Amino acid sequence: METLTQRLGALAADQDVVGTLVLTIEQRERSRFRATLDNGEVIGVILERGGAALRAGDGLADDTGRIYRVEAAPEPVSTVRSDDPLVLLRAAYHLGNRHTPLEVAKGYLRYRHDHVLNEMVRGLGAEPTHETAPFQPESGAYAGGGHHHG
């Protein structure tokens, strides 16, 4: 089994790659795991512990320098769309207050599908939509660190 051990960061869109790993956010947050490439080959990933989560478009390499692209797998998410920034801001504030991993983009917020969070968001005047889509949450101000309430 081939093993990828080098994190390359964001690849150029036209970068030649040997294969693509389509990974969920849970997989992209881990430093050691097995994955299946787009060609069906099983591959191992062993990265330095404590690094930030892999992001869609990042590259990984094996010991011979062969490069592989990471993509975000579609997964169950709730998406809140609004043309009103205040609606999104209020929802983001309350979701963040619950330490919910959150993707923030122009016109929408996205989080792992959760019916309790959906009800909270509805109570704030927004309407979440259940989708299957790639999930790329913010890495956070203290990525790799964590924090404590004191």
UniProtKB/TrEMBL annotation:
It holds the Pfam family UreE_N. It comes from the Bacteria. SMART domains: UreE_N (SM00988). The keyword Repeat does not apply. It is found in: Cytoplasm. Involved in urease metallocenter assembly. Binds nickel. Probably functions as a nickel donor during metallocenter assembly. NCBIfam families: PRK13261.1-1 (NF009751). This is Urease accessory protein UreE. It comes from Spiribacter salinus M19-40. The lineage of its organism: Bacteria, Pseudomonadati, Pseudomonadota, Gammaproteobacteria, Chromatiales.
